[in-house]
Design a protein that fits this description.
68% of the residues lie in helices and 0% in strands. Helix 3 packs across helix 9, helix 9 runs antiparallel to helix 10 and helix 9 packs parallel to helix 11.
Amino acid sequence: MKHKEVADFLFEVGILAKTPRSGFHFLGSGQQSVAEHLNRLVYVGYALAMLDGTVDVAKVMKMCLFSDLSESRISDLNYVHQKYNERLEDKANKDITDPLPFGQDMHDTLEEYKIRESRESLLAKDADNIELVLSLKEQVDIGNKRAESWIPPSVARIKTAIGKELVQVILDTPSDDWWYGDKQDSWWVDRDKEV
C-alpha cells in the first residue's frame, strides 16, 4: 500500500502527546508531554535562529522537531533514569526513519544535531535547554522552590551567546507578563472597553 510507512509514522508521532516528560515527577509539580515540549522547543529554536541571523532557520526547526522523536519508542528518560538505563536512541531513530521515503533527510538531520558541530545544532540544543528553563521558571513563579534549584545547571548547558542572552531575559521576566501586563490597569478590575 503506497504511503503505508508514512501513515504509520504519523500515527507513531501521535504517541508523543501521551508520553510524559518524566522529570516533572521528580520536580513535584507541573506536567508536560514530549509533544508539548517539542512544540515550544520548535518556537524557541525559530526565535534563536532568527535572532542569530546567520543560520538555516528551517534546519534549526527540523532539528528541534526531530530531537526527541525516539521517545515514541524509548520514552522520556530523565537524568536519573539515564544513569541506570541504556538509551537506544540511535537504534530507535534508525528504526523510525529507515522505512520512510524522506527518512534519509530525517536521519541526516538527527546526526548533525547529535554531533553538535554546526551552528544550527548548537542553537537547536540551546533551544532544548531554554525550553526546560521556561518550564522551570513557570514552576518557580507559582512557588516551587525545588524548580529554582534546577535552573542553574540548565542554564550552564547553554552554549551560544544569543542563547545566554535570551535565557537571562527569561529569568528576569515573570511568566505571566505576556498576558497580565500592567496589573494596575483598570481593565483587570472593570474591563471597560472603549467603544
